[in-house]
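Please check the following.

. . .
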Amino acid sequence: MSASKIAHPAAAAWMPIAIAEHGVRRLGPGESNPRIVEYNSHTNLAGYDDKVSWCSSFINWCLVNVGIRGTGSALARSWLEWGVNLDNPVYGCIVVLTRDHPSSWKGHVGFYLRHDAEYIYLFGGNQRQEVRELAYARTRVLGYRWPDASSFEQR
């Protein structure tokens, strides 16, 4: 889907929620950050501590906080089946990346900020064990996603 057919990029209502979490980080051995445990409670990682991969938990948590149903899955690649595919990224869209190998089940997910010729800059959770901005090679991108009409929860 082209970016012109979605809501204006300013409609990424989840981005202020996400950015307000900047700096939330995994704690050391024997400790667990209760905020990350809260992120995990919105996926199939409910009850897990901050030592698991929680990038998808963070995305789910941000969306739920603005009334959008996420995947409910802790798997980053679960986002490839969610919402609508975008041909090109827009601010706040969900970016799914490959991890280890393109055919692997492993991945990473974050919110799009910008890109240049080599890198895509994402804001997300579990990026060097914290909520922050980080650059990734553009060659790792598997897809750009945006909520569709069925993603919005009835309130």
